[in-house]
């Protein structure tokens, strides 16, 4: 019940100001967002890759309102890629980007987001890695998929995300599986209306398994973005049935969630990628993490009261 309320708050400017100014927020935020600058996050990159994990890096931010902010987002990724280059991690450290942060919702937003994201994809390719386009709310997805298709003409490894809760996703998955795309499948983290999305957890989980089967049986590279133990074991079964070996798909989880499981899967030889977000504009990302697990919110509120 709490999830939708928190997701609604994640879009409220008033809540953003309140939560961001709370004195104890930072220590709770740090669990999910281990730094505000490239300098703060690079030691984490070294630590995680040193333990056999792979990374997808997210400079937090979304829903920007000016072209200057969109250009700044592009530049923040370019700086990150510049600093990752000397570590020579190749695809062990890729980028995740939200197109809303690149100006997708501004006038002329589709073209602007494409123009801003292209140099990031080019810079990533120049250091031997790639970019995955995150999925945001359903109104943005036609544009995201069109940008994905456009980028793939020059950079076929560019990935995208699909969300099991949306009705449209089974068709999207068939198309992406047939054209050999890198696709991250997640349950979906936004507040979506019943006209476009499953609302019940068990319906979302069933859709996830159907879509996962499509991806496993297709030509592309499936990336399983979930912490759900049941889906992790179903993934391994479906991979076996589809004749995929370890390394022909990968697991992905968020930094700060089920860290032991990251290491367990990596130790079993799986490709295990940790989505590592950093930056100052963490509010939307943080609120979605609270919405996913009400215990996180209780912890957050308790730490505010105990100060
Ligand atoms: P759940 O059923 O939600 O969780 C399973 C178990 O995982 C829980 O019981 C709990 O133990 C643990 N867990 C899950 N979430 C939390 C949490 N916040 N705090 C503590 N424990 C938790 N969504 C999008 O809409 N677009 C994206 O582009 C996107 N990218 C993602 C990238 C990655 C790598 C991952 C892992 C998720 C991404 N998500 C994205 C979020 C996703 O949609 C889900 O909201 C999120 O992963 C929770 O779903 P779950 O599959 O882990 O299953």
TrEMBL record:
Keywords: FAD, Flavoprotein, Nucleotide-binding, Oxidoreductase, Proline metabolism. The keyword Glycoprotein does not apply. InterPro entries: FAD-linked_oxidoreductase-like, PRODH_bac_arc, Proline_DH_dom, Proline_oxidase. It comes from the Bacteria. Its EC number is 1.5.5.2. Its cofactor is FAD. Residues 45-299 form the Proline dehydrogenase domain. It is an enzyme of class 1 (oxidoreductase). Pathway: Amino-acid degradation; L-proline degradation into L-glutamate; L-glutamate from L-proline: step 1/2. It catalyses: L-proline + a quinone = (S)-1-pyrroline-5-carboxylate + a quinol + H(+). Gene3D superfamilies: 3.20.20.220. It holds the Pfam family Pro_dh. This is proline dehydrogenase. It comes from Streptomyces cathayae.
């Amino acid at each position: 019940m709490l999830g939708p309320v928190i997701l609604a708050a994640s879009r409220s400017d008033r809540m953003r100001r309140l939560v961001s100014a709370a004195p104890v927020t930072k220590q709770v935020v740090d669990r999910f967002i281990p730094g505000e600058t490239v300098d703060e996050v690079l030691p984490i990159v070294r630590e995680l890759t040193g333990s056999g994990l792979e990374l997808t890096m997210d400079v937090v931010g979304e829903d920007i309102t000016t072209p200057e902010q969109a250009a700044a987002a592009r530049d923040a990724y370019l700086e990150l890629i510049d600093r990752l280059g000397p570590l020579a991690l190749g695809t062990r450290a890729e980028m995740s980007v939200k197109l809303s942060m690149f100006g997708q919702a501004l006038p002329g937003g589709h073209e602007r987001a494409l123009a801003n994201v292209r140099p990031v994809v080019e810079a990533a390719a120049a250091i031997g890695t790639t970019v995955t386009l995150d999925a945001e709310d359903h109104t943005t997805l036609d544009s995201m998929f069109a940008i994905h298709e456009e980028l793939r003409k020059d950079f076929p490894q560019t990935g995208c995300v699909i969300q099991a809760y949306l009705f449209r996703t089974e068709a999207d998955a068939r198309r992406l599986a047939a054209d050999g795309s890198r696709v991250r499948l997640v349950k979906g983290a936004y507040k979506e209306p019943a006209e476009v999305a499953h609302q019940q957890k068990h319906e979302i989980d069933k859709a996830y398994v159907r879509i996962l089967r499509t991806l496993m049986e297709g030509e592309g590279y499936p990336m399983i973005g979930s912490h759900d133990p049941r889906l992790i074991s179903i993934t391994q079964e479906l991979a076996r049935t589809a004749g995929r070996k370890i390394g022909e798909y990968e697991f992905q989880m968020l930094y700060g969630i089920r860290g032991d499981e990251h290491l367990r899967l990596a130790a079993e030889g799986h490709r295990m990628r940790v989505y590592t977000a950093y930056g100052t504009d963490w509010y939307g990302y943080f609120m979605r993490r609270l919405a996913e697990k009400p215990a996180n919110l209780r912890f957050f509120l308790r730490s505010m009261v105990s100060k």
